[in-house]
Amino acid sequence: MTALAAAAPAALDTGDTAWLLAASALVLLMAPGLALFYGGMVRSKSVLNMMMMTFGSLAVITVLWVLVGYSLAFGDDLGGGLLGDPAQYAGLGQLMSPDSNGDSTVPLILFAVFQGLFCVITGALVSGAIADRARFGAWLVFVAVWTLLVYAPVAHWVFDFSSGDHVGGWLANRVGLVDFAGGTAVEICSGGSALALALVLGHRVGFGKDPMRPHNLTLVMLGAGLLWFGWFGFNAGSALGADQAAAVVFTTTLVAGAAGALGWLVLERLRDGHATSLGAASGMVAGLVAITPSCGSLSPVGAIVMGAAAGVVCAWAVGLKYRFGYDDSLDVVGVHLVGGLVGTFGIGLLATAAAPTGVDGLLYGGGVDQLGRQLLGGGVVLVYAFVVSGIIGIVVDKLLGFRIDEEHEVSGIDLVVHAETAYDLHATAGARSAGHGILGPFTQQREEPRP
Hints:
Elements (H helix, E strand, L loop, with lengths): L1 H6 L6 H28 L5 H28 L33 H20 L8 H24 L10 H6 L7 H19 L15 H20 L7 H29 L4 H18 L5 H18 L2 H5 L7 H19 L18 H32 L5 H6 L1 H6 L11 H4 L18
Helix pairs in contact: 2-3, 2-4, 2-8, 3-4, 3-5, 4-5, 4-7, 5-7, 5-14, 7-13, 7-14, 8-9, 8-10, 9-10, 9-11, 10-11, 10-13, 11-13, 13-14
Organism: Nocardioides koreensis
Membrane topology: Multi-pass membrane protein
Family: Belongs to the ammonia transporter channel (TC 1.A.11.2) family.
């Protein structure tokens, strides 16, 4: 331990490193939190498949990020601020030595892991739009290609800042986009990708006719709580230090989530006559989505306004899928895309130079310049994610078949794809179950097809 400490560069800060280690663990916790959140929102016959799509994303993206993803996102720019050098940090072996950290106060290999977990959550978010009807193997292929062709380039544009001889991405360095923790690279990117996939796969059987309510709101609330907890690592961890900026971001993240829940509930109560637990969880997530890009740019009061606005706007936006006819199963578009747009564009209005990013929005005397930068950045990421994700989805569908058979969708994707069910509600005798093949006793638990 003493020898390692002595070998570390003087710039390395143990407090900053400890905080980023904890923040990375918090972001990792968001993956099972999202699995519970999404798992509770689907019907009981597909809850395991929904959770597996999140855990599958965690496995595939983590490996790819180490092999080449981080280098694509944060390697030296290949030209035009569009993509990093895929060979520079391939495998992350170059970041094992303390000498690789340069002037950074945290180990760069830890920063690489932290950023990789952002990619994990972004990819897992996309899966919610195609719940109940996607082949698991095809999903894993999609999310692998998507990581390399969609997320890594966007992360380079938004998160890779130029320093010294290192040239970063064009949105952060040339346009001047402000995105503290991922309103564009995470939220808008996942929402645009989700919309494309929802269109490629089409409607679920019975969409708009049969009730498709969440099967377990207890899981939804538990998942929402874990997401909120993990979000502090997501946002405050992006300060990359245990300092004043992290404390400000921690505060704005807390109040925006609370305000988002209140905004959604108020609209729900006025519109529908009920304030629901699903509305509280969804509103909280909407507030957190909106504060993700703006957490370092707003005052605490500004964060309340931002969170409440996102709660109201997203509560209205989730109904657009019925008006326009796309089947976004778990409202990824309505919450993450719309909430990301609210947070990204809202910086151009509500940002204050007193916050860590030091930018004034229109309402604080900053003029329309920053608003224009935010509009350009958000729009470019949306179009790129939508178009490229759509192309990847179409190719995967042509080569592998992305959607499961209609009969299997109706009978239950958990049983057909994974040979498991989430709930064993009926006692079965082992002797009577013998000889039933790979599905065994689970064949007795199939849901009957809808008439």
